[in-house]
Automatic annotation (TrEMBL):
Occurrences of domain JmjC (ranges): 110-280
Organism in which the protein naturally occurs: Sphingopyxis fribergensis
Any matching Pfam family: Cupin_8
Name under which the protein is recorded: JmjC domain-containing protein
Cross-referenced InterPro entries: Cupin_8 (IPR041667), JmjC_dom (IPR003347), RmlC-like_jellyroll (IPR014710)
PROSITE patterns associated with the record: JMJC
Length: 343
């Protein structure tokens, strides 16, 4: 970090820590939560955590013993890579993506450790149930009636640019240490977001280099940092990241493993808001200003305000998708959109 820019990090807030009762489950803490919090020691009794505390090699052996014989997707940085999985000067990815057996990937990490080489290897968002036998069952968190996506993230030292996710997220540090820097959803303008359709991992990311922020190019980043919260997680700690909160994530040790759970607070048959934003860019953004203004009013009327004036004059049985959506009406709407987009 440039010395002139270091002052923006000196007043960083901390992510609040919450007490938890393992016997009562996490429902009371998670239900309706819209602010992040840390749960120290939530997964301290996981066998994976215990294996990692013994050694990084022990953690890798534990994972290999349960890995299925199938390809694993892996991102690899070139020699001298600093662990920041990002764009290069031409806005291409500064890493390559391939597939391999987990044993071969781990053998490469073992060799790099023996030679004292810094090598960037990152297995991101690997589905635990399809890639491992018994790993999820032996290392799990009781989330009540939630049906989350269960993913494991494995890698060397890495920096993942600030991004957000639509689902709620419980991220559990299993091996190594993780640093999270979080920003409220409203700070998106001050994070200087990059392209929507050309991203390192499917989500738009901040273009700011957190290690060396260029405040001449990104002056509003100071305002984002004024509302930032940060925390370092030890093995066994977890953090709850609410939907749409921006988070910059760093793997701080030579070998790090994170397990996370994603779930939605809305039915799975509802659409993805990002798809609606992409379609609005296609259909509305480049219209003449007076046309955009008309469509803005209609979006407010049908989507953002959506008060009784939208439907009171329509017989209740004839309101179709203007009524609260059901799985049936959502399916009809999705089919209509697919037909429209295919023309």
């Amino acid at each position: 970090m440039a010395e002139a820019d270091a002052s923006i990090y000196t007043r960083l807030g901390s992510v609040p820590e919450r007490e938890w009762d393992k016997g009562a489950g996490l429902d009371a803490l998670l239900e309706g939560a819209r602010e992040p919090f840390v749960l120290r020691g939530l997964t301290a009794d996981w066998p994976l955590v215990e294996a990692g505390k013994a050694s990084a090699q022990g953690a890798r052996r534990y994972l290999l013993d349960r890995a299925r014989d199938r390809p694993f997707k892996v991102s690899i940085g070139p020699p001298g890579h600093d662990g920041r999985l990002f764009y290069d000067a031409d806005m291409e990815m500064n890493f390559r993506v391939g597939t391999g057996k987990l044993a071969d990937i781990f053998a490469g990490i073992d060799k790099a450790e023996e030679l004292g080489e810094a090598r960037t290897v990152y297995l991101a968002s690997i589905d635990m149930q399809s890639h491992f036998d018994g790993l999820d069952e032996a290392n799990s968190v009781d989330l009540g009636d939630r049906d989350p996506i269960r993913s494991i993230w494995i890698g060397t030292r890495t920096q993942i640019a600030a991004h957000n996710d639509f689902p709620d997220n419980l991220a559990c540090c299993a091996v190594g240490r993780r640093r999270f820097t979080l920003f409220p959803p409203r700070q998106f303008r001050n994070l200087y977001l990059g392209p929507i359709d050309n991203t390192p991992a499917g989500r738009v990311v901040s273009m700011v280099d957190f290690d060396a922020p260029d405040l001449a190019a990104h002056p509003r980043f100071v305002d984002a940092m004024a509302e930032a919260q940060t925390v370092e997680l030890e093995p066994g700690d977890a953090i709850f990241i609410p939907s749409m909160w921006w988070h910059h994530v760093e793997g701080l040790e030579g070998f790090n493993v994170l397990v996370n759970y994603w779930w939605r607070r809305t039915p799975a048959w509802l659409g993805q808001p990002q798809a609606a934003l992409n379609h609005a860019i296609l259909a509305i953004r480049d219209l003449p200003p007076e046309d955009r203004a008309i469509w803005r009013e209609q979006f407010d009327h049908y989507v953002f305000d959506n008060d009784a004036s939208v439907t009171d004059h329509i017989p209740e049985t004839a309101r179709s998708i203007l009524a609260p959506l059901t799985s049936e009406t959502a399916g009809r709407l999705r089919a209509f959109l697919l037909r429209a987009l295919s023309k």
